[in-house]
Amino acid sequence: MFSVEQKQTIAAAIDKVIKDIQHPEMDNEKPFWELHVQGKADWSYATIHPNHEPVQGPPNRWNEIVAEIIKNCKDRKDYDE
């Protein structure tokens, strides 16, 4: 559902929140977590892991293309969400 860059951005934000809490039971150096994001359709989802975890398989080309299209549209002055 998300591009690799979008997943990395989300993962960085989650890592920051976890590290900022400084919970005594968490590994603040490399916390492990897993986020499942469900889209509107049953087939639309993303599972996001910390950036320090190994990447599982190649990126989904479709997600990369869609992210680029959205980025290009938002750069236009006449773009309306």
List strands and helices in order, with pairings.
Layout: H1 4-21, E1 35-38, E2 45-48, H2 61-74
Antiparallel strand pairs: 1-2
Question: How would a textbook summarize the main sheet?
Answer: 2 strands, antiparallel
For the terminal residues, how far apart are their CA atoms?
A: 18 Å
Task: Quickly count the domains.
Answer: 1
What's the assembly state of these chains? single chain
Strand composition percent: 5-15%
Average per-residue pLDDT, rounded, comes to 85
Q: Order of strands across the widest beta sheet? A: 1-2
Number of helices: 2
Structural category: alpha+beta
- Give the C-alpha Rg: 15 Å
How helical, in percent, are the residues? Answer: 25-40%
Low-confidence stretches: none
What is the number of E strands? Answer: 2
List the secondary-structure elements in sequence, H or E. Answer: HEEH
Please tell me what the overall shape is: globular
